[in-house]
């Protein structure tokens, strides 16, 4: 089959849509035939309306009736191919949500806000004490989400560096053995942690899961792996790229410093603005034939929902490449949509609000310490993001 593009698309600027993805968007269609990074055929969906529809469409799922024959996005053991049981996927997903929902209620998350603020303040105290220059990635974007999810789940302080290393390995999209090793380490660690929680429970999510009737050690460990990975990797990315957007748009940084009331809007724009050039596309498999935008997607086909492209669809967001804190970005799809909407979305927003409120107040003269073309991005991992963000003030 002839294809016009192959992932991953080269992102020539960390804050801009990849040129090849922009070319696809300008073709006037929302669904494109492409090849994945491992050479498999897939559909890439770039239109906001179509991505939103498919995020909440039960004709698509994460499982496949023949997983060994399914197209893959990459070598990650976590998200490179199908997940779950094709016959029970809907019921399994409903059970997962029912088990996690009580631990991520708005009330529980709002109660965490003072602690998140305190953790961010502690990291910024250390940043100020060390003085410029500093690496905002290593000193803030990376440690804060790890501290927050670690406290929420009840991970001992001394284990947090390990679980981050295992998460990074699990997310490797180019080395299957490394990814499988990372997933295995996360799972084995989670089993041990659950066993300890059953013996000595604390006031944390994993202790409450372990005490839930009908939840086995294996199921609790699987949920733990998901939460440990999803609970910090994406937020690390958003803090780093969000800071870079603000600091390379001085008038927007000034607006946030002058008007703290812009903070909720700023967070939504920070969530909307980043792009990951196809590497951040959400994989789904068609469970049945689907007709959309003049093409037919056949049962079993791999469908990649390009969130970054959807968030830069000019039919929804005027001048989408412009970073604008006054924009109403409520329609951004970074947390998904519908039945699969991210259960930790409110927690991520609380973390982002804590970071950018305190940065604007305490470091009003913050600016990049290097030219943007000197920055490098993580390659060959699911989420990507900056490897470092040198700053001065």
Give a topology summary:
Layout: H1 19-25, E1 31-35, E2 41-45, H2 48-55, E3 60-61, H3 89-100, H4 106-130, E4 134-135, H5 136-141, H6 143-153, H7 160-170, H8 176-199, H9 205-210, H10 217-230, H11 233-247, H12 250-258, H13 263-272, E5 282-286, E6 290-292, E7 295-297, E8 302-305, H14 307-310, H15 345-362, E9 367-368, E10 390-392
Parallel strand pairs: 2-8
Antiparallel strand pairs: 1-2, 3-5, 4-10, 5-8, 6-7, 9-10
Helix pairs in contact: 4-6, 4-15, 7-8, 8-10, 11-15, 13-15
Task: Provide key terms for this protein.
46% helix, Cytochrome p450, single chain, 3-stranded antiparallel β-sheet, 393 residues, 9% strand, alpha+beta, 10 strands, 15 helices, 5-stranded mixed β-sheet
Written overview of the protein:
By secondary structure, the chain is an alpha+beta fold. The chain has a single domain, classed as Cytochrome p450 (Orthogonal Bundle), CATH 1.10.630.10. The chain has helices at 19-25, 48-55, 89-100, 106-130, 136-141, 143-153, 160-170, 176-199, 205-210, 217-230, 233-247, 250-258, 263-272, 307-310, 345-362, and strands at residues 31-35, 41-45, 60-61, 134-135, 282-286, 290-292, 295-297, 302-305, 367-368, 390-392. The strands form three sheets. The protein has a five-stranded mixed sheet. Strand 1 and strand 2 (41-45) form a beta hairpin. Helix 13 crosses helix 15. The protein is globular and about 55 Å long. The N and C termini lie far apart (54 Å).
Distance N to C terminus: 54 Å
Strand order of the largest sheet: 1-2-8-5-3
Unreliable stretches, pLDDT < 50, 5 or more residues? Answer: none
| Quantity of strands, as a count | 10
Protein name: Cytochrome P450
Keywords: Heme, Iron, Metal-binding, Monooxygenase, Oxidoreductase
InterPro entries: Cyt_P450, Cyt_P450_B, Cyt_P450_CS, Cyt_P450_sf
Pfam families: p450 (PF00067)
């Amino acid at each position: 089959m002839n294809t016009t593009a192959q992932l991953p698309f080269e992102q020539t600027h960390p804050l801009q849509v990849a040129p090849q993805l922009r070319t696809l968007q300008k073709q006037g269609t929302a669904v494109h035939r492409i090849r994945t990074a491992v050479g498999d055929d897939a559909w890439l969906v770039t239109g906001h309306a179509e991505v939103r529809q498919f995020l909440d469409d039960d004709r698509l799922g994460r499982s496949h009736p023949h997983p060994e024959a399914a197209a893959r996005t990459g070598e990650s053991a976590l998200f490179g191919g199908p997940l779950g049981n094709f016959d029970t996927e809907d019921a399994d997903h409903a059970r997962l949500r029912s088990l996690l929902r009580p631990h991520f209620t708005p009330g529980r998350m709002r109660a965490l806000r003072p602690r998140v603020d305190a953790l961010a303040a502690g990291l910024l105290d250390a940043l100020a004490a060390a003085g410029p220059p500093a690496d905002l990635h290593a000193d803030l974007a990376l440690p804060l989400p790890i501290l927050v999810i670690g406290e929420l789940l009840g991970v001992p302080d001394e284990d947090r560096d390990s679980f981050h290393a295992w998460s990074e390995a699990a997310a490797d999209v180019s080395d299957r053995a490394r990814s499988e090793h990372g997933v295995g380490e996360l799972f084995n660690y989670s089993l041990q942690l659950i066993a300890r929680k059953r013996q000595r429970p604390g006031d944390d999510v994993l202790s409450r899961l372990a005490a839930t009737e009908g939840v086995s050690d294996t199921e609790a460990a699987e949920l733990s792996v998901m939460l440990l990975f999803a609970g910090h990797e994406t937020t690390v990315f958003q803090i780093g790229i969000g800071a870079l957007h603000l600091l390379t748009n001085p008038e927007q940084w000034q607006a946030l410093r002058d008007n703290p009331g812009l903070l909720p809007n700023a967070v939504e724009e920070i969530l909307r603005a980043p792009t990951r050039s196809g590497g951040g596309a959400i994989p789904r498999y068609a469970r049945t034939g689907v007709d959309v935008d003049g093409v037919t997607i056949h049962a079993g086909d791999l469908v990649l929902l390009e969130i970054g492209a959807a968030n830069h669809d000019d039919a929804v967001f005027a001048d989408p490449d412009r970073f604008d804190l006054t924009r109403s970005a409520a329609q951004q799809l970074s947390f998904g949509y519908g039945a699969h909407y991210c259960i930790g979305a409110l927690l991520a927003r609380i973390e982002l609000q804590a970071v950018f409120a305190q940065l604007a107040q305490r470091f009003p003269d913050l600016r990049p310490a290097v030219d943007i073309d000197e920055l490098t991005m993580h390659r060959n991992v699911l989420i990507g993001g900056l490897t470092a963000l040198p700053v001065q003030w």
